[in-house]
Amino acid sequence: MATTLKDFLQQEAEKQRAEASSAKAVIEEWRVSIERLFAQMRAWLKESDPNGVIEIEESQEVVNEPGLGRYRVPRLDLHALGDWIAIIPKARRTIGKATPPQKTVPERATGRVDITNEVHRYVLYRFQDNGRELWMINDLQSESKLLDQAAFENALMSYLR
């Protein structure tokens, strides 16, 4: 049975609405995850920098991602000792892989955030496991490791030295 143009367009419109709704949910979940990561980073900085040597500037980054479209997420810019370091979300759907703790093979990450001064880059990969979220850090020269306060501080020190 042949469908009419009207039927075809109605079916396509319904598909687009469903895809847009799904993309919106993924983007919102990603935004909340980034906000949690940044809150943790700010807490680490507050503990390590009680004198406020590092200035934290919060803004928005526009990401244009296949399947999700164009959306805004938070970003951080750090200024200290004449240096600038950006912490920029790059993608929710990433092709990057790393080996999460207690796993033996690399897995595809469920998000990527870069720490960069546009010369050197650390890549943060997000993984989700049984409702738990964890981040791995990679300097693109060695194995990924769990992002914790020491790893974060070591990354920042590499820029500030």
How would you portray this structure in words?
The chain has 161 residues and is an alpha+beta fold. It has one domain (5-160). It has two helices and nine strands, in the order H-E-E-E-E-E-E-E-E-E-H. A seven-stranded antiparallel β-sheet has the order 1-2-3-6-7-8-9. The protein has a two-stranded antiparallel ribbon with strand order 4-5. A hairpin with a 6-residue loop joins strand 8 and strand 9. The longest helix has 44 residues, at 5-48. It is elongated and about 70 Å long. The model has no long low-confidence stretch (mean pLDDT 90).
For the report, how would you describe the main beta sheet?
7 strands, antiparallel
What is the CA–CA distance across the termini? 71 Å
Helix fraction? Answer: 25-40%
Structural class: alpha+beta
H/I helix tally: 2
Question: How would you describe the shape?
Answer: elongated
Beta-strand level of the residues, as a percent range?
35-45%
Unreliable stretches (pLDDT < 50, length at least 5) are none
The structural domain count equals 1
Radius of gyration over all CA atoms, rounded: 19 Å
Number of strands: 9
Query: What is the averaged pLDDT score?
Result: 90
Strands of the biggest beta sheet: in what spatial order?
A: 1-2-3-6-7-8-9
From N to C, what is the helix and strand string?
A: HEEEEEEEEEH
